[in-house]
Amino acid sequence: MTSDRYHTRVAFTVVLVTLALTACQREERYFEPPTKAVTPPPVRLSQIQPGAISTDTSIEHKYEDTAYALSEGKRLFGWYNCNGCHANGGGDKGPALMDNVWIYGSKPAQIYSTIVEGRPNGMPSFGGHIPENEVWELVAYVRSLSGLASSGAAPNRADAMQTKKPEGNAEEQKPVNAAPSGASEHP
Amino acid sequence: MIGGVHDVQMPGGAQAQAIVGLWHWLLPICVLVFVAVMIALGLALWRAPRASNDTAPDIASLSKREPKVTRVVIVAVAVSTLLLLVLLAVSVMTDRALAQLPLENALHIELTGYQWWWEARYDDPDPSRMFTTANELHVPVGRPVIVTLVGADVIHSFWVPSLAGKKDLIPGRDTTVSFRADRAGVYRGQCAEFCGYQHAKMALFVIADAPDDYARWADRQRAPAAEPSSDEARRGRDLFLARSCAMCHAINGTSAQARHAPDLTHVASRMTLGAGALENTSSNREAWILDPQQFKPGTNMPPQNIAPQDLAALSAYLASLQ
Question: ipTM of this predicted complex?
């Protein structure tokens, strides 16, 4: 009986220590330039295709799971004046980014091309002006505004006062694509 | 370490002179006290009664009074009190001397600390005569300077040991520090409050010029960037505006007006790059643009994917910004 209890205790301790150790993984920051340029996959704004419908949606996920990338995205969102039109996600001259409506698609590659190419009616084209890895950081942060990025990695505390829930607490908004894109499924 | 006097004991102005005066009282008194305490400790150890393990403890000695020790303690307390009073008096007098710096006709500078660089705005009653520079202050010899200290992100600390004492830059709570440089020269400053990864590479240079030289420097700083004279430099300017440089840096006289990073209008006139990280030479400039993370890991400037001939043109343009 005593021995049984002893064994239970040992097993319990081993499990606890193992659980604690799994929490010790430290996220790595990457200060070095990416050795190879990240080329986004072809972005389709239309679902009408000749022949077979190809749904290539391979994307960069590493930025969406990285707290450092997301917080850099948040900083750049202010630095590059995204908030000048989109406010802090609620929208102003530009559309809101924290709701579920995506005029030009919610997939990372689609947001990437929206930033790089610009869009009619006001969205400037930032291609060449923002290094590629920073665009990906912005993409990840923009997705975190509507709860599409990892909630564990999204910023939970802003440097300045915010009038909305922190990104890490944002409720996930299932994307609904407005015109002109037909691709509405979550990547 | 790149250039400049960085030594409390080599004062270059009235404030630092007052502080070094305090130092000349503090150091000998503290050394004296330290030596006296060590001698007393040595004597006590030397005179301590020694006994072997077998000797029975002398309990009777516990109830005896020790008249000599009482006297020594009284004398030591009196001497300590006296010395502390002397230090107090000298500190108060130093503080008064610091507060009595005449501030008529002072130069006003607003210095903002960022992770990890300094932005300096030279104020003027006439707004068109104000100008902004970074990581390097020029001040006229003999004229008092009032620096308003602003913390932009975290707490930093202004510390130019050869000119003034330390003062913190606290976000949301502006403070001022005033000093006067009495000798021309280059004085090195350093952020003195741990402010993150690159705290150590957050230097500030204060260059004290003769008043005429200062006036010439200030006039040049007020002017917008000159139109580049060579084809290469012109191409460099176009690259600067077309690439990511213009997203964060400002160059007056061009469409680059972002204010997130050091103002580059007259970058070639400065001694260093990256707030004292590198000397401002053309090879260092190119290496810095290519990969600043190599010299200052964590800095907000991203590495650039740029062709060698474009880099040379960009560097030529920046070199023309005198």
Answer: 0.81
